[in-house]
Known about the structure:
Layout: H1 3-23, H2 32-50, E1 55-59, E2 62-68, E3 76-81, E4 97-99, E5 102-104, H3 108-129, E6 137-142, H4 153-159, E7 164-166, E8 176-180, E9 182-191, H5 207-219, E10 229-237, E11 247-256, H6 259-270, E12 280-289, H7 298-310, E13 318-321, H8 327-332, E14 337-338, E15 345-346, E16 354-356, H9 360-377
Parallel strand pairs: 3-6, 3-7, 7-14, 8-13
Antiparallel strand pairs: 1-2, 2-6, 4-5, 5-16, 9-11, 9-12, 10-11, 15-16
Helix pairs in contact: 1-3, 1-9, 2-3, 3-9, 7-9
Amino acid sequence: MTALLGLAEQRLPQIIDDTLALIEVESPSHDLDAVTRSAKATADLIHERLGAPAQSIVVEGRTHLLVSFGTSPTQLMLLGHHDTVWPIGTLARLPASVTDGALRGPGGLDMKLGVVQAIHALAIVRELHGVDALDGVTLLVTGDEEIGSPTSRSLIEKCAAGAVLVLEAGGDNGELKTARKGVSLYRIQVSGRAAHAGLEPEKGINAAVELAHLVITIAALSAPDLGTTVTPTVLSAGTTTNTVPAEARVDIDVRATSSAEQHRVDSDIRSLRTLHPDAVITVSGEVNRPPMETAMSATLLALAEHVALQNDLTPPAGIAVGGASDGNFTAGLGIPTLDGLGGVGGGAHAETEHARISAIAPRTVLLAGLIRSITTEGISRAE
Length: 383
């Protein structure tokens, strides 16, 4: 057993306890008070385990945490988030627990475990090599990733440098995420004219009917052979059952593997037209995250394979996934980015969310090894 793995195994009970404690501080993205409480709990844990103060950065009421080690410019950023998709009260029916070899609870896999593993990986590097070994490392934990990072994107892009390791969950079999689709989000509003549905419907302009035609056109913008999906999601129209709807709207989720496809869909959506000449269409939204392409993770994946072999671990494979993360932003800036370094399990955003206990120590070792290798040698070893 290597020194890194031995230390990670010793810390495993503490890693589990720390994660359970953070899960119990519920932090749905839209609840600013809850996110503030979660940020404090996370900052307290950082200080307790690393002796380092976490700077609270509040933007539009959302609290993000930044920790910079040493005085050198950042050469490695660890990137995570402490907000979740789960509403307050979820713990009452999905308590934080360890059962059947898995850590469970809302937001445990996505991604409070990843944040805790990073904290302990940093502590292991410091314990083995001294505090100077962390010089040039930055830890950023944001509070709005699950809603598209509206207040943290500029902070992420400002702080990212050198290389970025993203603490999102890995693949079901422990794979690292080497490519992610880009995301675009839109809302289309159709304005028509109300009229009595029984007395004089012909005097109205039915926004629901107009939108129905548009939804078919929107869905047809998908290009499965190119990995592009255009999905109408939330629809609404009308006010009462006896009134011709004057307003209707649809939300649209777009996923694409290339910037070219994102821009193609963007242009097509903005070119949509209604059938009735007096109906008005309004398009809001834009490209939210650029694609994270494989080229931006290749060197770091090779380095992760090397670190795994050094520590008697199975070298991780890389996978491409449809979901996006904050790593899309850093990869879009041309910064080498490797994702999926958090927990290993399944069920993210579902009631079956869980992380396998057996994977926690090896994943913490992989993180610690990458931190040490990047801060001492950069990422050139794998080139």
